[in-house]
Amino acid sequence: MKITKSKFEPAVHLGLLAIVFVLLIMNFRSNLTIYHAGVQKRRTVTVELNRSALSIGRTVLKEGLTAFNTEQEQAFKHAHGLNQAILLASTRSSDAGIALDRVINGELDISLAKLRNSVSIRVAPPQNRTLIRGTADEYFYVHRLSETSGGRLLVLSQHVPELAYLEDSGKTLIVVNVIVVLLIIVVYLVLFRLILSPFRKLKRQAIIAGREVTERQDEVEAIVEEYQNIIDELKEKEAQLLILNDAIQAKADRMELFNRYLLRSISSAVIMVDGDGTVLSINKATSRIIGIDPDAYVGRKYHHLPEFCAPLFEGVKPMLDSEENESYREYDIKMPDGRTLSLGVTLSSIDDFASSRVGVSVLFNDLTEIKSLRGEVEAKNRLIALGEMAGGLAHQLRNSIGAMAGYSHLLKKRLVKHGLEVDPVNALEEEAKEAETLVDRFLHFARPFDFTAEKTDLNALISDLVETFTIRPENAHIEFAVENSVDRGLEVEVDGLLLKQALANLLENAINAYGGLPGTIDVVYSIESDNITIRITDQGCGISDEDLDKIFTPFFSSRPSGTGLGLPLARKIVDLHQGRLTVESKPMQGTTFTLILPQRQPDPRPSGHKRATTEA
Question: Does 259 fall in a domain?
Fold first, then answer.
């Protein structure tokens, strides 16, 4: 196919030439402006220096000077804003004029000041009354003084950075203009080829595709007409595709509607995300269980869901990145309203017809009530086991306590008979009675304690308790440090015997934390906001994170010889006082138990034992 020259090409040529012409005119105009500015500035400086030369010359002729001393030179320079002011005199040949000319033009490395007294001339050099540029931005003006004999030249210089910048810019612009003209020519040729290249490429592609491009004088018009034909054909195909698409869309709508009905009917919560992690759907059960608005999160990334939902999506990214499936898991999540939900979560992959993973469905159920019932059943089983064990243990303890009471009674009689001190035996009998009372209450551990709140001196209670631990020989390696901000004689409403037992269990736990090594146990108590706060701190072995949730469980003990009943009993006693028992511990750093009780027992207070709900 013969390709003729199109009408489009002359238009492109004319357009580019017009742009080039405008650029050249603007360039010429800018150069001319700079040149005129330089000429005007040079005239201004010449006039100023000539005026200064005439003024200084009158002074020289009047005073008959042949050279300036330093003071005169400084005075002239200051008065006329000069950089240099030099007077040269001569009665000999004009060689000095030639030397002066070479100095002014920077050809000789000689300062004009050195010529002040050594160079003399008869006639003025050719640069008389002409502004001559020296080095950098310094300009010289040479003025010959009119005299009948001899000759004197007045050489003045001044720094004129503006004139130097204009003259340097003019020279630079000449070089730049030449380069710009060459670049414009190159750009002109390149742009012409680039503008026409797409049309020529379109024509070649049309011929390769089997389209017959009409032979016209203007090939651009031919290409446009051919592509108009293609658009008409595409519109016809589009109409056919729209009919098919409507049928497919109707079927898809029915399927989508069915899926929505299915998701709404499922009692389990379902959240589906695509391969990019975008939430596709959230069913009604999800809103009911975790209280989120589906419309607020559908279409957004799953990590935009509330922070408490993060555990539900822990396995989504690994599942999307691999072919593995996540197994069933259970999570406890903290809700914004303070509730804790136990959720059973199952992740399932969503695959297309080619078995390629295109998304993940997150299905979960609320197991909070089931888990609570499970915990209650386990607690009841432990209490049953505890009751069975308590029956046998109580019988043996009662026998031992009865024997101790009998021997102490005999011992007391003998001491009285011999006139010896019986106070230690009385204390022993009191401890035996307390032990017998505690055994009776221990038998009722699975049932409510007989709780009796009475006004008790807190200082005396804690002092007596610490003293009973201090005098024991097995505690000789332990130092007890008691600190308090409670006034002496302050009475609080507590069951003294039960509170003393709870604190004793915590102290026993602190002593055992040292494992027989020396150490210090701090007992700090105070009144804070109408509450009694008691902290028992040790620097012993501490409690591991995995055991923190178990230490208040009956029969759980990290020591082989432990019974696992001390801390559960302490918590139960604190619960009876409607208080809180918390623990903070770090392995190998120590443990702090904090016991908080109301200073006055509320009225009315619940009867019997209240199920423990405090945090560990």
Answer: no
Interacting residues of 461 by C-beta distance below 8 A, sequence separation 6+: 496, 499, 500
418 and 485 in a single domain? The answer is no
Token pair 């208080």 is at which residue? 579
The DSSP element (H or E) to which 555 belongs, if any, is none
Q: Are residues 297 and 315 in the same domain?
A: yes
Residue 348 counted as domain residue:
yes
Asked if 381 and 284 sit in the same domain, the reply is: no
- State whether 440 and 421 are in the same domain: yes
Give the position of tokens 């005169």: 72
SS3 314: coil
Question: 203 — phi, psi (to 5°)?
Answer: -65, -40
Q: How buried is residue 57: exposed, middle or buried, by Cβ count under 10 Å (0-12/13-18/19+)?
A: middle
Structural domain span for residue 298: 266-366
- Residue 520 is predicted with a pLDDT of 94
Contact 123, 90 (CB under 8 A): no
Q: Of 68, 60, 105, 65, which is closest to residue 85 (Cα–Cα)?
A: 68
Q: Are 223 and 199 in contact (CB under 8 A)?
A: yes
Q: Are 311 and 364 in contact (CB under 8 A)?
A: no
For residue 221, which amino acid is it? E
Whether 438 and 453 share a structural domain:
no
Domain boundary among 350, 366, 382: 366
Verify that 91 and 17 share a domain, yes or no: yes
- For the chain (616 residues), the mean pLDDT of every run of 10, in chain order, is 53 73 79 84 88 88 84 88 81 47 47 43 46 82 67 83 84 79 78 71 71 59 69 82 83 68 67 82 78 80 80 77 72 80 79 75 77 66 64 66 78 81 81 72 57 86 91 90 79 88 91 91 88 92 85 74 74 88 91 91 52 33
Annotate 383-433 with DSSP letters as a single string.
HHHHHHHHHHHHHHHHHHHHHHHHHHHHHHHHHHHTT---HHHHHHHHHHH
Q: Fill in the DSSP letter of residue 49.
A: H
Would you state the pLDDT for residue 407?
Answer: 78
* Report field, pTM of the whole predicted structure over 0.70: no
Which residues partner with 532 through β-bridges?
527, 597
| Six token digits for residue 4 | 């003729």
Pair (463, 412) in one structural domain: no
CA distance 550 to 167: 92
